[in-house]
């Protein structure tokens, strides 16, 4: 008996979906990205099949290419979907962020560690005419941001080695891109109670201070304060003291949730 066309189409659709999910799972396990051939080898799929699936996933923002004929990694849309599922716990911190932003008069960002990137998941924008603002959902490499470097300094050695073994992109002329320089920076951060500085390493004209504020539901969270450099210079000690005080407050808040 012939198989009804609707069932065949359904089976085909399920197979495509399964293969697409398999690709996403492979990329989840390789934050540095995989090439088309590597994905095909791991899943036993023809390169043409992998190419079609990646094209469809990329069109939806679920994967992203790191350049022509380059490696693929998880895309911003998938990251946003994952963040949304976990965001309830993070949003409990929002009132504390609002209070802290009012106290220091600056924009405050909350980010979560995701592989080898820091992803902004919440933000309180200060009422300043000149301000530095990134969108919730944006992600940045750990080595090139205050929050990211603070996370790196708090990570276990094997995870640090994995991140530093990947491509270290220079976002500005000030970005640290050698393993030696970054490791020295991480030692300075650890010696400063976990407080990290970004001196125009992510964006020219913008400096920032950041620190890990704790772990919620197994997610490492970091605070950062981006400030136009002209208003940041000379305030480093003041902002560092404020950040350390906020970290202490969050420690108490996290303990109260247990």
Summarize the structure.
With 258 residues, this protein is an alpha+beta fold. The protein is built from ten helices and eight strands.
Written description of the protein model:
With 258 residues, the protein is α+β, with helices and mostly antiparallel strands. It has 2 domains: 5-74, Orthogonal Bundle (Arc Repressor Mutant, subunit A); 79-257, GAF domain (Beta-Lactamase), CATH 3.30.450. Helix content is 50%, strand content 21%. The protein has helices at residues 5-28, 36-43, 47-59, 76-91, 94-104, 146-154, 157-164, 179-191, 229-232, 236-257, and strands at 63-65, 72-74, 108-114, 117-124, 139-141, 196-203, 206-216, 219-228. The protein is globular. The protein starts with a helix and ends with a helix. The model is unreliable at 1-8 (pLDDT under 50).
The portion of residues assigned to helices is: 40-55%
What does the overall shape look like? Answer: globular
Q: SSE order, as H and E? A: HHHEEHHEEEHHHEEEHH
> According to CATH, what is the topology of the largest domain?
Beta-Lactamase
Distance between the termini: 60 Å
The figure for the number of domains is: 2
Q: Provide the structure class.
A: alpha+beta
Chain-averaged pLDDT: 86
Strand content: 15-25%
Whole-number radius of gyration?
21 Å
Low-confidence stretches: 1-8
Strand order of the largest sheet: 5-4-3-8-7-6
CATH C-level name of the largest domain = Alpha Beta
- Tell me the total number of β-strands: 8
């Amino acid at each position: 008996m012939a198989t009804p066309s609707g069932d065949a189409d359904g089976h085909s659709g399920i197979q495509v979906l399964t293969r697409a999910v398999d690709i996403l799972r492979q990329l989840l396990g390789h934050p540095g990205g995989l090439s088309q051939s590597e994905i095909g080898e791991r899943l036993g799929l023809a390169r043409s099949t992998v190419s079609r699936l990646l094209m469809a996933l990329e069109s939806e923002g679920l994967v992203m290419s790191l350049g022509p004929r380059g490696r693929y990694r998880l895309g911003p849309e998938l990251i946003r979907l994952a963040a949304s599922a976990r965001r309830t716990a993070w949003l409990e911190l929002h009132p504390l962020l609002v209070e802290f932003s009012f106290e220091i008069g600056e924009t405050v960002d909350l980010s979560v560690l995701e592989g080898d990137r820091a992803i902004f998941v919440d933000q309180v924008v200060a009422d300043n005419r000149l301000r530095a603002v990134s969108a919730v959902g944006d992600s940045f490499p750990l080595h090139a941001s205050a929050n990211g470097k603070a996370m790196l300094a708090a990570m276990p050695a094997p995870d640090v080695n994995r991140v530093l073994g990947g491509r270290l992109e220079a976002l500005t002329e000030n970005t640290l891109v050698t393993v030696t320089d970054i490791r020295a920076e991480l030692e300075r951060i650890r010696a400063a109670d976990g407080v990290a500085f970004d001196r125009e390493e992510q964006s020219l004209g913008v400096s920032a201070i950041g620190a890990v504020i704790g772990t919620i539901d197994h997610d490492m969270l970091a605070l950062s304060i981006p400030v136009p450099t002209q208003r940041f210079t000379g305030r480093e000690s003041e902002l560092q003291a404020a950040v350390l005080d906020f970290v202490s407050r969050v420690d108490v808040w996290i303990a109260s949730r247990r």
